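It is worth pausing here to work through a concrete case rather than discussing structure prediction in the abstract. The textbook approach is simple: state the sequence, then state the predicted structure, then interpret. We follow exactly that order.
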Amino acid sequence: MTTATLGRLDAIDPAARRAPRYGGFSWTFLSVELKRLFRNSSVVIFTLIFPVAMLIMVGLPNKNVPISDVPVAQGGMSAAVPIMISMAVYGAMVASTMTGVTVAAERTQGWSRQLRLTPLNPVVYILVKVLCGLVLGGIAVLITLILGSALGITAPVGNLVLAGLLAWLSSLMMTSLGLAVGYAFPAQNAMRYLGPILPILSFMGGLFFPLALMPDGVQIAAKFTPVWGIANLSQSAIIGTAPDVWAIPNLVVWFLLFTGFAVLMFRRDTKRV
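Step two, the predicted structure:
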């Protein structure tokens, strides 16, 4: 390194460096993250195939089973309708959680070390990952609902749109959970821990089995689990009934908890590197 170069470096005043606007967020940064996500073939394939397979295996056999005294042939709603939106929620959950867990591989590749050298705000990085999870979760929801319509599993358009939007919201919370796990555990262990957790949370939240058929104690306990709020909101919307008053607080509280935990794990990880 020449004397002239050293002189230029000495002239740089670190205190005079300006922090980037919006904590480092930019549309370029978001587009780069999305491109990296869609290059991950396992994430994309799982997002496209899993909710479709679940709908065909679980929903289609119940297509002609009514949820009321009115037969499906006479305009009654099919039992496959709430199953369809439940599979859409689960597909969005899995897709967005996998989006978050990709940070475990990024840590292994040294990406956390690079971030440590930048003025990027941890909250901004978490939110960019959440936005990526929303994109992938939205694809999972759309594919599930479009396939359901193609198979003849129908609901009023207004109910379908509202329920689809609510199912999409699950991506917010579950991406944050994936991020927290991705920063807390090594890449080889992250999905190993989340693998059994997601089905258990879905069962407790009423995605895989109607809570009304479970014991009272289980129904009460379910209201304190992360998936219950979004399951109740989306299922109520698609069949046209009012949701439980605690469904929205459940969704908001768990989103804030998972996001806060993800930020905490991010800060801890970058301090280690």
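Step three, interpretation. Residues 80-108 form the longest helix (29 residues). The chain is about 70% helix and 0% strand.
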